[in-house]
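Final report, closing paragraph on structural work. Over the funding period we assembled a curated collection of sequence-structure pairs, and we close with a single example.
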Amino acid sequence: MNATTVDPITFAVVKSALDTIVDDMAYTVMRTARSPIVRDVLDYSCTLCDADGRILAQAKTVALHLGAVPDAIAVVLDRFRDDLVPGDVVILNDPYEGGMHLPDIFMFKPIFHRDRLQGFAVVIAHQCDMGGRVPGSNAADSTEIFQEGLRIPPLKLYEAGEPCKPLFAMIRRNVRLPDLVVGDIEAQLATCGLGERELLKLVERYGEDALRRYFDALIDYGETLTRDAIRAWPDGEYTFTDYIDDDGFDDRPIPIRCTVRVEGDHLTVDFTGSSPQVKGAINSTLSFTKSATYLTVRCVLDRDVPNNAGVYRCITVTAPEGSVLNPRHPAPVAARALTGYRVVDTVMGALAQVAPERVVAAGEGGNTVICFGGYDRDTNQPFVLVDMINGALGARAHKDGIEGITNPSQNMSNMPVEALEARYPVRMESYGLRPDSCGAGRYRGGLGLVREYRLLAPEATLQLRSDRYRHRPYGLHGGGSAAPSRNVFDPDGAAEQLPSKVTRSVHRGDVIRHEQAGGGGYGDPLLRDVDAVREDVLDEKLTPVFAREHFAVVMTADGAVDHSATAALRAERARERAT
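Its predicted structure, as stored:
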């Protein structure tokens, strides 16, 4: 930063202003969106970019989206750089031309001041449906991109302020819920307008040239802090492998392998050794793989590092073409979020060898997606419920994991039961924490969630995307793995065990229960404070049997700790380890 051109007070004001603008954009989406997946679950993201497409600030929204923006905006600039005018709005969702998967529509609004491009307001929102073979356009069992719905290459939705009516008509004709989808697109548009208005206020206040210097300085600042952190890590190669259970077609596990190379103040994250692309729709575009990697590295940095393009300069991400992390067209990608979550777990496992005090054990494995889609028998109107269950964090170096909260890569919300039941022909039979689902440790993982759905409509298509059935969330530094997830059809009757990834017809009265995995533990379980174990038992988070088996804590019938029996059992366990 050049002290002669950048005033530190103004620098701080500009930085805070950008952070405020993107958060105001996020609130605008929440207030104006039509569909529950955006309004209640919060599956959207907002950011501001400069005229070169570099991210300046990110809202506190879905982090997994935003690291893909550089690749998407590069496609937009390549296509339209010399053909953008005030009032233009560009959208895209094609995974093979800047997008991630079809439900996520990227919207870019170029911001002009006196006919000179100043930057872009960007909003990404997960649409409730984009057509295709199944409601919600998110099925894990599609086998090619053409089955997944309407693909939109980079196109102008608005040109010089005028809507592209044929494009709106094309979208309406190809989705099941056109009013909700177009309503959410209009919410994105309103949000981009807010970002444009507020950024132009900064331009008017500071002037174009001065503001660009501050943008450069802010990005340089993000890079400097990131490089300082990396430089403090020991040079070397650190490898970790995690697994996705299956792709819904083949029972063989799908390895995600990464090697993190620390070289001075730069990181290279290489995914050589990961699975080839698969038949099912869990393939991840390279842009999404990069995004998951960037956010994982960001999680282990100090909180004062700004979330901007400067962080990305310090990280190189590579994945073999034709792999599950960089598939070739026309591989399906609808359920690619699952693979992104496992990328986060894998990179975090490698970084645990570099900066163990800053890394968390594996969480629940990413959210579980449960979708019911069908038609009202009387009105023939479609319904599409896309519910995303966000459950548990892994334990940290000095704290337990948290339950009932989103994975850091998602930053979303669980749909309130009241909102779900008021809008959809589904009744929630149970919703709560899953006892004994955590990984044991000096600090235990968070508990997974249980959600149980009863269909009230005559018939629907059920899509269920989950994981961590066989490859449980790992613990760190002696901590235990969490309980695996489970899907049960008719839990109070035949209790049929369903696979982790399901598409099937269901009928009125059918009940589907999902039991989510918990978070892994951190540290030696024998070192856990016995009073903390007792509190968990009294809160019914743990059973006395689990406390004895995993923490060597013996409880009495009245809920007290038998300290002498506990000391003897822990000593016995320690001797068994030594031998």
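The mean pLDDT is 96. The first helix runs from residue 8 to 32. We thank the funder for supporting this effort.
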